């Protein structure tokens, strides 16, 4: 227990101190709240710095792939919005876990146009960790922008089907998500590997112990992703 | 600007930052080992082939990278730390090691690498 202890002088008419009046206030809660606030501030500062470092890296990657200002502008701002959407989702989920469907919707729907027929989402309610949401959100963003430019979301008759499920393999729990494009213009594997495709193929393995498998099939891109799930 | 061909090991868990280090240092003529994002993978790479220099993010998914730093120190491999936080909490044995704050200033990093390569 923490006490804020005070001695207040009591004076007579001549102004002489005749008595000291002691008083005490329990300030345990106030001190605890102050310590908590300090901890939160430190954590916040850490997160902001990390976010800025991430944004710096994203800017450099986008600069390397885009020679003219206009293409840099649209690619970079799109990626910045994707990072921001991941953050927003996590804040709404009270900083713990993110709902997978909400993550997919926030990253892909903006690129699906007005007609809902081009995009289908199918899967149970599953939450993923904040870390996974950040990594996977950016992948979904890259897939969506690619589909909108060259693939299943670039023509009216094209479509993207996204489905997911929880699976167990050799005693380990995974979230498995399939991304299947169809009806778009013919697919050819990228000749120049931009950062977007590097991110799609490699970031899950590096960041969160996941797996990515990408097939550039002629009728549309097919991709399968796996994220480890610790809880069950 | 450095022109060392000494292989540089990159240990950084955040993919975007790891790849940025990889691309930027490759473009400046360095050979890169990794990048890897975990202590286990870093140990494995060091085991396979001792790097000339290493860049170590201090915080790898909540775990400090100090075991990797110790292994490098034991083998006489010079290294520098990367940190998103202020670095006042380095353990005793590592306080004299160079430390670079994120977001990374690549010109500063380059000169630190040159200094390490000469050490």
Cross-sheet strand order for the largest sheet of chain A: 4-6-7-9-8
pLDDT below 50 for ≥5 consecutive residues: which ranges of chain A? none
- Overall average residue pLDDT of chain B: 88
Q: Structural class per helix/strand content of chain B?
A: alpha/beta
Strand content of chain A: 25-35%
Order of helices and strands of chain A: EEHHEHEEHEEHEE
Largest sheet of chain A: 5 strands, mixed
Helix content of chain A: 40-55%
Element-level helix/strand string of chain B:
EHEHEEEHEEH
Question: What is the residue-averaged pLDDT of chain A?
Answer: 87
Largest interface: A-B, 24 and 19 residues
Rg over C-alpha atoms of chain B, rounded to the nearest angstrom: 13 Å
Query: Ranges of chain B with pLDDT <50 over ≥5 residues?
Result: none
Cα distance spanning the termini of chain A:
40 Å
What general outline of chain B do the C-alpha atoms trace? globular
Evaluate the radius of gyration of chain A: 27 Å
How many β-strand runs of chain B?
A: 7
Termini separation of chain B: 17 Å
Strand content of chain B: 15-25%
Count the E strands of chain A: 9
Secondary structure category of chain A:
alpha+beta
Write the layout of secondary structure elements.
The complex is a heterodimer of chains A (232) and B (119).
Chain A: E1 3-11, E2 17-26, H1 28-65, H2 69-92, E3 97-99, H3 100-108, E4 119-122, E5 127-129, H4 130-149, E6 159-169, E7 172-182, H5 195-207, E8 211-217, E9 220-229
Parallel strand pairs in A: 4-6
Antiparallel strand pairs in A: 1-2, 3-5, 6-7, 7-9, 8-9
Chain B: E1 8-11, H1 15-27, E2 32-36, H2 39-48, E3 53-57, E4 59-60, E5 63-64, H3 66-74, E6 79-83, E7 99-101, H4 106-118
Parallel strand pairs in B: 1-2, 1-3, 3-6, 6-7
Antiparallel strand pairs in B: 4-5
Helix pairs in contact in B: 2-3
